[in-house]
Every structure is written in C-alpha cells, then in structure tokens.
Amino acid sequence: MDYDEMLDQAIEETPEIEGTTERFEVPDPEVRQEGNATVFENFQAVCDRLARDEEHVVKFLQNELGTSGHIDESGRARLTGEFRADRIADAVDAYTEAYVLCPECGLPDTQLKREQDAILLRCEACGAQSPTSS
Fold first, then answer.
1. What is the DSSP string of 30-97?
2. Mean pLDDT, residues 42-61 taken together
3. pTM of the complete model
4. Which of 16, 68, 73, 104 is the residue whose CA sits 20 to 30 A from 1?
5. CA-to-CA distance for 113 and 28, rounded, in angstroms?
6. Is 102 helix (H, G, I), strand (E, B) or coil?
7. What average pLDDT does the segment 94-114 reach?
C-alpha cells in the first residue's frame, strides 16, 4: 500500500465531528433588580464556565461597571446600581477576552499564573504565555 492509498484509508476511517464549531459558550447573564441593587443570578455558573475565581471576576465587574458589589451566600453577585443584562454581558465578554481566551490561538484552555508582580495568561493548548492587564 502506497502513501496515497494509506492517506485515503485514514480519511475514510476518520469520524465526522458533528456539532457547533464553537465549543466555548458563556451563559448569558440572568439579572434582576432588587431595590437599588442588580442581582446577577447565574454568576456562579458563569464563573464555573470561565474556570476562574469568583472574587477575581467580581472585582473585574466592579471596575468595568464602576460600582461596588459582593458575592452573597448563594453564589450570586450583588452589584450596587441598576444594570441591564446586556451591559453585564458586555463586561463578562471583556473579562473573557482579557483573562480567558488565549491571544495566540483563541482557545479558552488557559490558566492565570502569578509570576513576580505580574499575572500571566498561560495557554494549555498552544503553550503561549502573555501578560494580562492587571
């Protein structure tokens, strides 16, 4: 069997991968107003999907939205002020871009590593390391 025949056989035996091309989807924020606070109901699910520490994410949201907030005992984020779901979604997207997706290959297979005084985004898929904004 020559190379071309082996290549054809390998292509025939390779299974078709079905599904979406996007394997990384962050849940849309579920928010509700409670007095003068916005409650981010599925905050824990978003952090789990991003594979990031809740405190780090809530600090970023506070900076991005220009407000104060905290995580309650149920794992929901409570942000002072009124924010629509699309505004919080934009902030989560900004976090994902800055602290989750690899700038080299675009995959979410990353970890945050502290080296000296810098936080680096290290990609498990391609091995790239890049500094984050904070």
1. -EEEETTEEEETTHHHHHHHHT--HHHHHHHHHHHHT--EEE-TTS-EEEES---HHHHHHHHHHHHH
2. 95
3. 0.79
4. 16
5. 27
6. coil
7. 91
Name 37's bridge partners: 34, 80
Ranges 4-13, 46-55, 111-120, most confident:
46-55
79: closest CA among 90, 94, 65?
Answer: 65
Residue 10: CB atoms within 10 A of its CB come to 9
Angle at 54 between CA 52 and CA 56, to 5 degrees: 75
Place of tokens 């025949």: 5
pLDDT at 66 exceeding the cut of 90: yes
> Distance (Å, rounded) from C-alpha 116 to C-alpha 29?
34
Three-state SS at 14: coil
Kind of pairing between the strands at 118-123 and 129-131: antiparallel
Instruction: Determine phi and psi for 103, rounding to 5 degrees.
Output: -70, -20
Question: Is the separation of the CB atoms in 91 and 97 below 8 Å?
Answer: no
pLDDT on residue 132 = 85
Q: Record the tokens describing residue 133, joined without a space.
A: 């904004």
